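FAQ
Q: What does a multi-component entry look like?
A: The components come first, one per line:
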Amino acid sequence: MTCAQTITDYALRSIGMGERLLPRADYTLCQQFTLIGSGLIWNLYFAFLALAFGFVLANGLAVAKASRHPWARGPANAFIFVFRGSPLFIQFFIAYEALVLLPRAGVDILGITVQTSWMTRAWAGGLFVLILNTAAYSAQIFHGALMSVPKGDVEAADAYGMTGWTRFRRIIWPTMMRLAWPSYTNEAIFLFHATTLVYFSGFPAFQQRGDALYYASYFADKTFNPFVAYPIAAAYFVAATLALIWLFGRVNRRLNRHLPGQVRRVKYRPQIVR
Amino acid sequence: MFSYCTDPSSLEGLAWLSCYLTSGTHLLFYGSFGTVLLLLAITAPVALLFGFGGAMASRSRVAPLRWFGKIYTSMVRGIPDILFFLFVPIALDQGFEWLRAKMLCESDAPIRQGNDFVVCAAAKLPLSTSPPWVHDAYGIFLAVIAFSVVFGAFAANVLYGAMQAVPHSQLETAEAYGMTQRQVTRRVLIPQMWTYALPGLSNLWMILIKATPLLFLLGVEDIVYWARELGGSKTSAFTYPHPDWRLYYFLGILVFYLLMTFISERVLARVTRRLSRGQATMGAGVSA
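Then the predicted structure of the entire assembly, as tokens:
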């Protein structure tokens, strides 16, 4: 089998297209590269959607955490405490066990039967946990940034007669984003790397459709040789992480475009995020 | 455990629960919390040592050493830690067995035969004749190394940053007093860097706590393993039949971790305040 043939067979294997059977013997380098790359689709899927939804949720949470009303502040604090204080791995297990307990036949809501079986699948259940997890960490970052928005900015907005939503949208939020962005970049990298946990944490890989690390460990188990499959997966992740850093760097430059000379390079500093 | 536990099927309510929660397997489950704490207690200092080595290496003036340090500190930026947890134990295991095979085995048969990794019985680690606890200890040893490699790299990042953050004037003053490079490092740089490193290291401790359930992936019988074993539904063939209780076991583990991180956060905030006394930094309140 030529390498081009392998690629057409397996490039979309992780999302159920192409050859059903995984290679069983004589694992070639080409097969390993193709399948692990195919698994990367899931990592990108989880990372992209979790970051998108988590970002929105985190903004709400950060504002709620800064609110003067205990009814808004309390739940936001509790949510952030639980999700930042416990391991993601355990959160996956709990979510899976809780979702499995839902009635098989579906739940009746207002006369409509809502199917529940899809929720125990990784693409939904895993994504759900990742959204909540990244929302909690990002909310903490955004809250910190919100607290360090310069008072002068807000007073100037007041002087212009801006209030409420206008003031938040035009003055506070852009500054908050600008201050939070370097830390948020780190959070995004952490989350991207955390997507590899989904298929190792109770969520079954349906029909052996898993992520990059799932296929890497498949090959490592079958060939009993960790020195090929894992470095391939590592190379994919390094490339994807560099792309992510570049993308977030572009956004950072845009957020700081009114402050020439202030654009600090977004540095990866794992010590300040999680 | 208790005298009335001899026939659990006749018990009800609290008495049943008290017997259930003190059964032999549950005592092993409680013991596995000790495994987690043991891992933390061993890994934290070893990782700090690795990190210190990595940070010193990336400041070295010897080029190959510096490259090694740079690669070591930057590898965790691009590669997920879980990948290391899967890779390091099996790679180390094969590495040790390969070395032992070179020394101990008489035959010259190739070690890697197709999809197999074959060494003679004398080179196996641990030996197939050794007692079960040696197998367990070896598994935990590999896990500790894997954790230390990953968290050492994180710590190297933190310590490298902290060494860069020590005010240059302090080092120059030390040089002006006639100290050699080595003396400057030992007497000024290293004592002074800890204040700058502390916020990062406290955060790293939190990450380390939250990474301990990954022991399960390494095949160690840790709390996640026991929660899955004990929580799974038990038919009437078992002494204590019950439906699927895994959710409750995992909620228990969740509470354990919330307590761990909560207490750590409190203690670290206090240590930060203490250490930043008399330092010309912003100090307190940077534990997050």
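Q: Is there any commentary attached?
A: Sometimes. For this entry: The beta strands of chain A are 107-109, 112-114.
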